[in-house]
């Protein structure tokens, strides 16, 4: 996990509509950048729907919500449409952003070691500095936790 107080790594990733987003375009806004393993899995769906349900409150506080996984833009589009997600989902199949934010790690699934995305959420301030970092977050609790951090 990246250190609090460090500059957030730059990225340029396509969203669920194929539009490329960069961290720089969010300068002047707080950014909740959350990394999750896979679209349409139970934990990831709970987390995304939690951000969806609290989205008006994030907007009131001037914060952008960005979800990142290695799923394709097409997978993100289906996930967005199925659950009515109002925020941006970024596709990182090459793992460039995922590795830059140090969330690609060894995981232990039923005794088998695999590499994967560790559910992690960063709060980035208006200047692009990481001000909060939460690793191995609980999917269902993370959206309310992040709202509290704002």
Largest sheet: 5 strands, mixed
Total number of strands: 9
What is the helix fraction of residues, given as a range? 25-40%
- Evaluate the radius of gyration: 14 Å
Number of helix segments? 4
Structural class: alpha/beta
Percent range for β-strand residues: 25-35%
Q: Which strand order does the major sheet show?
A: 5-4-3-8-9
The ordered string of helix (H) and strand (E) elements is EEEHEHEHEEEEH
Low-confidence segments, given as residue ranges, are none
Q: Could you report the average pLDDT, rounded to the nearest whole number?
A: 96
Shape descriptor: globular
Layout of SSEs?
Layout: E1 12-14, E2 20-22, E3 30-35, H1 42-60, E4 63-69, H2 73-83, E5 88-91, H3 96-100, E6 104-109, E7 112-117, E8 120-124, E9 130-135, H4 142-149
Parallel strand pairs: 3-4, 4-5
Antiparallel strand pairs: 1-2, 3-8, 6-7, 8-9
Helix pairs in contact: 1-4
What key attributes describe this structure?
alpha/beta; globular
Give a description of the structure:
This protein is of the alpha/beta class and about 150 residues long. It is about 30% helix and about 30% strand. The protein is built from four helices and nine strands; from the N terminus they run βββαβαβαββββα. The protein has helices at about 40-60, 75-85, 95-100, 140-150; strands at about 10-15, 20, 30-35, 65-70, 90, 105-110, 110-115, 120-125, 130-135. The strands form three sheets. Strands 5-4-3-8-9 form a five-stranded mixed sheet. α1 (about 40-60) links the parallel β3 (about 30-35) and β4 (about 65-70). α1 runs parallel beside α4. The longest helix is centred in the middle third of the chain and has 19 residues, at about 40-60. It is globular, with a radius of gyration of 14 Å. It starts with 11 loop residues before the first strand and ends with a helix. The relative contact order is 0.25. The mean pLDDT is about 95.
